[in-house]
Structure formats: C-alpha cells, structure tokens
Amino acid sequence: MNGDVKKQVARPIGQIPSGCFVMTASHGGRATGILASWVQQASFDPPMVTVAVKQGRPIQELIEASGHFVLNHVNENPLSMFRHFGRGFRLDEPAFDGLSTQTDPAGIILQDCAGHLSCRVVNSVETGDHRLYIGEVIGGSYKGDERPYVHLRSNGLQY
Prior knowledge:
Mean pLDDT: 93
Number of domains: 1
Number of strands: 11
Strand content: 35-45%
Radius of gyration: 15 Å
Number of helices: 3
C-alpha cells in the first residue's frame, strides 16, 4: 500500500470501536497475559470470538500448546490493567503478581476485570503482522455493575 493510501485509511480504520481485554493463556506451569483490543464476536451458535495477536508475542506459544485462552474484559477504568500489562511479559516473568486471579482450564481469570470469556481455539489464520485466533466460547462471566472500556485509536495503522 502506498503512503498516500495509508494516510487516507489510517483515521477511518482507527475509528473502528473495540473493547479492551487482557488475554491470558497457560500451559505446563507457565502463564502470561497481554492487552488485546482486536476482539470481535464471530458466531452465535456455537458462540465464537476472534482475537488478533501480533506475531511473535510470547503468549502465542502457550495458546498453541494448550489450545485455549481467556479474554478478561477490561472495565471502563482501564489504567491499572494498562499499566500492569502495557509493557508485556516474557514467559519466564510472573505476569500476575499483585493481581487477584482465579485459575481456569483455559487460562487465568482476572478478578478486577468486568468479566471473562474462556475459549477453545478452533482455528487460527495468519493475517499479515498478526495471527487471528478463532475461539469457541466455553465459559464466562460478567459483573452486572461493571461497564466495559471502549477503545478508539487516532491511527488505525499502529497501536
């Protein structure tokens, strides 16, 4: 794509609203989490979602090995989650120190989030610089008094 077209589409792509989630995965005694904003519902029956993960993120190793992930829906006051997960974690770093968590067969549930979706990977597709995971929702919860954070970017060609 040439530079003029990139400039033309950057703002409109960035204005596609999305939630913000902490995606977690665990396998073999290791666990980690990342911020994920490219999440969409993909099917009613069975319920499915898609989530895009930048190629090379350490969490991919755990998702591929376990075949599962959890999406923790960040609430409308996202700063604590953004600060905690914003820099990212290597697989040998403790990603959940200081957080209230619950272990789930699909990953880690964060108690300070508005809710969660536990997912089983049914497919994945390379999409340029990201890998798109398609997950069947196999469990979840939502706190009725929590409002989700909604995210818009000024530039749809970068985070």
